[in-house]
Amino acid sequence: MNYLIGIDVGTSATKTVLFEEGGKVVVSASWEYPLYQPQNGWAEQRPEDWREAVLKTLSKVVKESGVLKEDIKGIGISGQMHGLVMLDGDNEVIRPSIIWCDQRTGEEVEDMQKIMPRKRWIEITANPPLTGWTAAKILWVRKHEPEHYKSCRHILLPKDYIRYILTGVYATEVSDASGMQLLDVAKRCWSEEVLHKLDIDPDLLGTVYESCEVTGTLLPEIAAQTGLSAGTKVVGGAGDNAAAAVGTGVVRDGTAFTTIGTSGVVFAHSSQITIDPRGRVHTCCCAVPGAWHVMGVTQGAGLSLKWFKDNFCQDYIEEAEKQGIDVYDLINRDVALVKAGSDKLLYLPYLMGERTPHLDPDCRGVFFGLSAIHTKAHMLRAVMEGVSFSLSDCNDILREMGIEVGEMMACGGGGKSPVWRQMLADMYDCEVKTVEQTEGPALGVAILAGVGCGIYESVEAACDAMISKDKSTGPDRGQAELYKKYHSLYKKLYEDLKDSYKQLASL
């Protein structure tokens, strides 16, 4: 039997999974690492932590599986998008990676719009200049840390740094590269015009591949260290959301998914390139060759619930440890007892600014409507509903663009929650489904590896063979109508507060 490995370099941890070619999990391993916030609105991680996590988890899954190394045919890599990794002439990391949720680059985004009109940015890169995307981070380093920029010889994304560690190859692929703001998204190649306007040397960037193309094979020293074969192929892989789409079977028109991880995403597949001229949602190349996706992003989705849990739910944490269960199971139990609307309590999930639909790095989280009637369970439900309202904002824009979705899949940690799936079904007013396979991005890139290794003829055929549907949640009509009223107020609150956010940011 053939086996495939998927590696997902996430924000909180790296997860590595060994699959049979039919999609069954053989063994998995994860390794956590910290996120650093040197200043308010900043977010960084050490690429060396990702390297350690990948090598440790690779070694662990190979050793524990007992599978012959020759039978492990390919590796796919997924990861958090937009992060800036800079290497010097000795291939050493120059500075910590400025990651996706960092919001320090407001001035650089303004500079980009002076360099080239917003409309032209959208025409080429399919998106307006964005604080969280890689191009603005490159400009920030060049302006604020010129010695680092001067010593830089290679610019990579997080997962592509791991590719370099595994193969010695400087490369990326179209889905992740789309989030750098340097790619001509329609033509699926680096934009000479953008690189010229920004004065970025194209030699700093890796070769661009399609997601299922083979980019290299394991270095002999990495193969020896991990127990794999030096002939093991490494394919392009995909950014986390494009990988999650493949891992949930969203590879054809009419299909979409919602993921609630650290961030939240509503993602729809399209065989035609479709761009929002207002730049509220992001259009990128997807992991299916010759196709694209449109996605809206909520910056603080699962992050909001984790933040509240970590800071205010020590009692839940202790009780979960006592019972030997997941703390989120206890949270879901209590949230389910609170009626929809959280007794008139609303939460705005802007802990790290927001992307869709506001593109506002200065907005911040809010509880609105707090009264003495509210308990911790009310606040927890309000957090989950606030995230769901933000995701509903994303879905509404896709509808405006004429993207018709007949099937919405749910994935990520939040997608495992029946309570959260019900909220989404009510707000989307459609069926929300899951798949039996729960590995998301790791499965997605393993599928891409299977195509690159010739086990499957196409991404679509591989998904048909390796993925099966599971649960389905339909909308509750009464709750759906109630949520429409709350959503209207939710949207108004941002408009009422946006000037105050700017004032707060300037203090």
Query: Would you tell me the structural class of the helices and strands?
Result: alpha/beta
Radius of gyration: 22 Å
Q: Count every beta strand, where a strand is a DSSP E run of 2 or more residues.
A: 24
Q: Approximately what portion of the residues adopt beta-strand conformation?
A: 15-25%
Q: Which range best describes the helical content: under 10%, 10-25%, 25-40%, 40-55%, 55-70% or over 70%?
A: 40-55%
Mean pLDDT: 96
Tally of contiguous helical segments: 19
The N- to C-terminal Cα distance equals 62 Å
Largest sheet: 7 strands, mixed
The shape, in one word, is globular
Could you list the spans in which at least 5 consecutive residues all have pLDDT below 50?
none
Annotate the secondary structure layout.
Blueprint: E1 3-9, E2 13-20, E3 25-32, E4 44-45, H1 47-65, E5 72-79, E6 85-87, E7 97-98, H2 106-115, H3 118-125, H4 134-144, H5 146-151, E8 154-156, H6 158-167, E9 171-173, H7 174-177, E10 183-184, E11 189-190, H8 192-198, E12 207-209, E13 214-217, H9 220-226, E14 233-235, E15 238-239, H10 240-247, E16 255-260, E17 264-270, E18 282-285, E19 292-298, H11 302-312, H12 314-323, H13 327-335, E20 346-348, E21 366-368, H14 376-400, E22 407-411, H15 412-415, H16 418-428, E23 432-435, H17 441-452, H18 459-466, E24 469-473, H19 477-506
Parallel strand pairs: 1-5, 5-14, 5-15, 9-12, 16-22, 22-23
Antiparallel strand pairs: 1-2, 2-3, 4-7, 6-8, 10-11, 13-14, 16-17, 17-19, 18-19, 20-21, 23-24
Helix pairs in contact: 1-6, 2-4, 10-17, 11-12, 11-14, 12-13, 14-16, 16-19, 17-18
